[in-house]
Each structure stands twice: as structure tokens, then as C-alpha cells.
Design goal:
alpha/beta; single chain; 4-stranded antiparallel beta sheet; 230 residues; 2 domains; Rossmann fold; 6-stranded mixed beta sheet
């Protein structure tokens, strides 16, 4: 199998500054990977490099078959269609319903057939347990419900990998457990998950591969008994 996401000796930038040197990381189909570390250690910069928001100037990297070093502007939308991204603050459009939020994304990524769009929206809402919320406005939903809708949005184009940047950061522990279980279920069905978090309790409870960012490096924790300082 080819990696869904691949880095080899890659320097990761935040703006003009290098925040991680020499990143080596291969994420395979079906992997559940945590990227952990203190605020400012480069975790989110890795995600932004995968989505081609941050340029890669040194080393090699690819995501979903796209070479991230020197990727052409016209290819970036196609790369992003192959990825699902989930944010801490949900980033739903507050002026339209759940259904219209999802339809907006489908139209923006090239879908045109209304029947196919409606069918796909129904599928992803069922996948996250939100079939009865299609006509609700975001402000009518709890935080956990909004995050489930954000996950549904990430699933729309059947991504090869989901990138989750602190997806439980604004949720209470019980709601966070529900979101993590949902991500685990999606992972069990074959979708690679890459989750940025600073919450040690999460990756203790929901096992996966762990990469830790510190001292301008990001390396995999092989010995699970090692204490990861966050």
C-alpha cells in the first residue's frame, strides 16, 4: 500500500519560520494517528502543509497522490477534495441550515446534480447520527451536534484521510467521548484519521500511533510507556 500522507526529511514552516525540521512520517490507509505537543510546537503547521496552505520548501511530501512540494495552484482544490478537515470551532456557516451548509460544500467542489447531492447529504448525516437535524440552523444545535455536522461535512467527498485539528477542544468530556468514538468508527471503516490534540487523556483512552512535537522536531513515540510532556 502507498501512504495516504508521506513526509521525508521535510522542514515545516509557519509563515517564514521553520517550526519543525526533518519530519519523517508515513500515514497508511486505516491508520489513526495523533500529533501531540505544546501550543506553538508545529502541530497545526503540519496539517496546513498537508492541505497546501503552508508551502514546502525542503524535503519531500505527498498527500492523496499529490506532490506537496511545488504543487500547482490548480491542483490544490483537487487535493483538498481528497481530504476531510475538522476544526475546533466547527466553522459552520451560521446564516444557513445544516442541509444548506452541506450543499454549499458540494457545489463548491463541483457537484451539480441536485438528486445526487441530496442523496449524499442524507448519507453523511446518517453516518454521524444527525438525520433529524438537516433543517436546523447551527445556533439551534449543541456543540457536540455542531461538531458531528462538521464531521459530516468532512465526509462529503469520501476523503482518503480526515485531518482533525483539536476537534474536541471546545467540548465537555462526555461529548468529546462521543466524537472520538465516531472518529474511531470511521477509522474502522477504512478512513485514515490524523488528529491534532494536546489532551493526553484522549490518546490514552483511544489508542493510535502517536507523534510528539517538541524542540523543533516531530517523532513517533514507539514506546507507549514513555511520558509525553504536553
Amino acid at each position: 500500500m502507498e501512504p495516504v500522507i508521506h513526509f521525508k526529511d521535510a522542514d515545516i514552516l509557519n509563515g517564514e519560520s521553520t517550526v519543525i525540521y526533518g519530519l519523517d512520517m508515513d500515514i497508511m490507509p486505516g491508520d489513526f494517528v495523533y500529533i501531540v505537543g505544546k501550543v506553538g510546537s508545529g502541530k497545526t503547521s503540519i496539517i496546513r502543509t498537508v492541505t497546501a496552505e503552508n508551502k514546502l520548501l525542503k524535503g519531500e511530501a505527498s498527500a492523496c497522490g499529490y506532490n506537496l512540494r511545488g504543487i500547482k495552484s490548480r491542483d490544490i482544490p483537487y487535493l483538498r477534495r481528497s481530504l476531510g478537515v475538522i476544526f475546533q470551532d466547527f466553522q459552520l456557516l451560521t446564516d444557513r441550515s445544516v442541509e444548506d451548509n452541506l450543499e454549499f460544500v458540494l457545489k463548491a467542489t463541483g457537484w451539480k446534480d441536485k438528486g445526487l447531492m441530496d442523496a449524499r447529504i442524507s448519507e453523511v448525516l446518517e453516518a454521524v447520527g444527525m438525520t433529524t437535524k438537516a433543517h436546523k440552523m447551527p445556533h439551534q444545535l449543541s456543540g457536540g451536534e455542531q461538531q458531528r455536522i462538521a464531521i459530516a461535512r468532512a465526509l462529503l467527498n469520501k476523503p482518503k484521510a480526515i485531518l482533525a485539528d483539536e476537534p474536541t477542544g471546545n467540548l465537555d468530556s462526555e461529548t468529546a467521548d462521543g466524537i472520538l468514538q465516531l472518529l474511531m468508527d470511521l477509522n474502522a471503516a477504512g478512513t485514515a484519521i490524523v488528529m491534532v490534540t494536546h489532551n493526553r487523556a484522549i490518546f490514552d483512552k483511544y489508542p493510535g500511533r502517536v507523534f510528539t512535537c517538541e524542540n523543533e522536531r516531530c517523532t513517533e513515540v514507539v514506546d507507549k510507556g514513555i511520558d509525553v510532556t504536553l
